[in-house]
């Protein structure tokens, strides 16, 4: 897959992509990201990429011309073009899975009060939000999209990591994890994890995942695949009064 990111902050996007698992995957050539500086396509002498909104109002609007020129200069056949925008459809793992099937993506990062609508009509038929909160611009949203896509591409995660794609394969929140030391400042790791009974460990983890999901995201239990044992365990939770609400959201 190749992803082209149109942005007025190409160095911000590049810097973030050089780190961690995404950075390693790019180094290995498992996918490619090209950051395209919209300002390089500005035609006016001050290299402005924005102007005052027609009709008045707060803030600035990104000019159509540099965006459309940047898009046309970087078009590829079969390219899927997406404008990151708070008014887009919301990103979900299902959308990420769909995007991970594409071979050519172009992401437009907006700033100021938005982008001249004509640039969107001409080049970006699709809009995508990463959730209902307000960012300063689309760059961090593009990074979220790229991060989520990258971990689905072949070879990016180790086989162990990808097989254990817990909350989206089990449909439940993940069980708690512990590592050394056994006793951290008087807090013992759960005994069941230390004695090596793998059947007990698997059941304990499953029940922890069920309890966390029951407490925090009960709506997930309606779609998660559950067996008779799971249902029996959930019934015991429903019959037990809640003792600790502090971790609830
Ligand atoms: C005046 C109305 N504002 C919308 C709530 C204007 C506005 C604010 C901030 C328009 C764009 C932005 C910058 N945000 C993004 O570019 C963005 C975004 C977001 O803010 N939330 C969730 N997903 C995304 S994707 C791009």
Description:
Helix content is 37%, strand content 16%. The chain is α/β, with parallel strands linked by helices. Helix 1 runs parallel beside helix 6 (139-150), helix 3 (64-73) packs parallel to helix 5 and helix 9 packs across helix 10. The chain is elongated. The mean pLDDT is 95. Bound molecules: ligand 9D3. Residues 84-86, 110, 113-114, 129-131, 133-135, 137-138, 141 line the site of ligand 9D3.
Write the layout of secondary structure elements.
Elements: E1 2-7, H1 10-17, H2 20-27, E2 32-37, E3 50-51, E4 61-62, H3 64-73, E5 80-90, H4 93-99, E6 104-109, H5 117-123, E7 126-129, H6 139-150, H7 159-163, H8 166-169, E8 183-184, E9 187-188, H9 198-216, H10 228-239
Parallel strand pairs: 1-2, 1-6, 5-6, 5-7
Antiparallel strand pairs: 3-4, 8-9
Helix pairs in contact: 1-6, 3-5, 9-10
The protein binds ligand 9D3.
Short characterization:
The chain has 249 residues and is α/β, with parallel strands linked by helices. It contains ten helices and nine strands.
What tags apply to this protein structure?
binds ligand 9D3; alpha/beta; 16% strand; two-stranded antiparallel sheet; 10 helices; 249 residues
Assembly of the depicted chains:
single chain
- Structure summary, number of beta strands: 9
SSE run: EHHEEEHEHEHEHHHEEHH
* Number of H/I helices: 10
- Global geometry: elongated
Structural class: alpha/beta
* Share of helix, binned: 25-40%
């Amino acid at each position: 897959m190749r992803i082209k990111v149109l942005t007025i902050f190409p160095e911000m996007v590049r810097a973030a992509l050089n780190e961690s698992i995404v950075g390693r995957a790019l180094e290995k050539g498992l996918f490619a990201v090209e950051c395209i500086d919209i300002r390089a396509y500005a035609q006016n002498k001050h290299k402005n990429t924005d102007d005052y909104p027609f009709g008045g109002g707060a803030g600035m609007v990104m000019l159509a011309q540099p965006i459309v020129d940047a898009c046309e200069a970087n078009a590829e056949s079969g390219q899927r073009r997406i404008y990151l925008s708070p008014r887009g459809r919301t990103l979900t793992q299902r959308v990420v899975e769909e995007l991970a099937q594409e071979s050519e993506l172009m992401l437009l990062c907006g700033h100021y009060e938005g982008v001249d609508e004509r640039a969107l009509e001409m080049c970006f038929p699709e809009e995508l939000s990463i959730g209902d909160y307000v960012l300063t611009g689309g760059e961090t949203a593009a990074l979220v999209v790229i991060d989520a896509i990258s971990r689905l591409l072949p070879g990016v995660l180790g086989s162990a990591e990808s097989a254990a794609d817990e909350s989206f394969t089990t449909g439940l929140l993940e069980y708690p994890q512990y590592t050394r030391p056994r006793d951290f400042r008087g807090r013992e790791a759960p005994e069941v994890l230390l004695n090596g009974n793998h059947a007990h460990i698997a059941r304990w983890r499953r029940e922890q995942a069920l309890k966390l999901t029951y407490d925090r995201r009960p709506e997930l239990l309606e779609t998660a695949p559950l067996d008779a044992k799971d249902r029996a365990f959930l019934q015991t939770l429903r019959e037990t009064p809640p003792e600790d609400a502090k971790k609830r959201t």
